[in-house]
């Protein structure tokens, strides 16, 4: 399976609608140039992960403007597209009141929504996303032709029990979009490798470039194999595309050669 990670730059001066169109065009260009099976975008690339004051103003229903643009991009490009995440406004008819969620969207090559995932662990402690967004409650996986993808988002990366749950649900590749701050870049790389090693999976961790509401982003998108080896990593915090070929047989081979998962004892 070939995967392309699009480390999108978020500029506060670029209107959201303009960025949607620019990114959808980039998806098509990368699909034509790199011929990937899967394209991955970062977290909250429409607004910026730290642009808290924009969450409510730019929030959209699940099948809103970003959904429509990304569904068409996936269909035009003929690829599986993890479209990063959006600030989702659930709506009164959802049973969740008018709550906001940090929601990831994955589209099939036909442009159909294959799965969505509401971020479970919200960053900010007693401010920011932690108080502005609702918490998701369900793990999410999706089967693509060559593998089962397990979905997580940014701050989720610090909580290994979530990823154990994804492994138990059959995940062979973790896809982790993020808006990770530059000042904690070393943690980002460390956690991506740790999740790969302990769960014996591939990790596709796609970060944003640029600056969100004054917070410099780490960039540093990275692809890690089931042994914890870095297969590719973004050179810095600028907009960049990483394309990597994944041999999915390595997941089963790694688990057979070093069957640590079989020795789990705690429930």
TrEMBL record:
InterPro entries: C-N_Hydrolase (IPR003010), C-N_Hydrolase_sf (IPR036526), UPF0012_CS (IPR001110). It comes from the Bacteria. Keywords: Acyltransferase, Transferase. Residues 1-248 form the CN hydrolase domain. CDD domains: nitrilase_5. GO terms for molecular function: acyltransferase activity. The keyword Transferase applies. PANTHER family: DEAMINATED GLUTATHIONE AMIDASE, NITRILASE-RELATED. Belongs to the carbon-nitrogen hydrolase superfamily. NIT1/NIT2 family. This is Acyltransferase. It comes from Streptomyces silvensis.
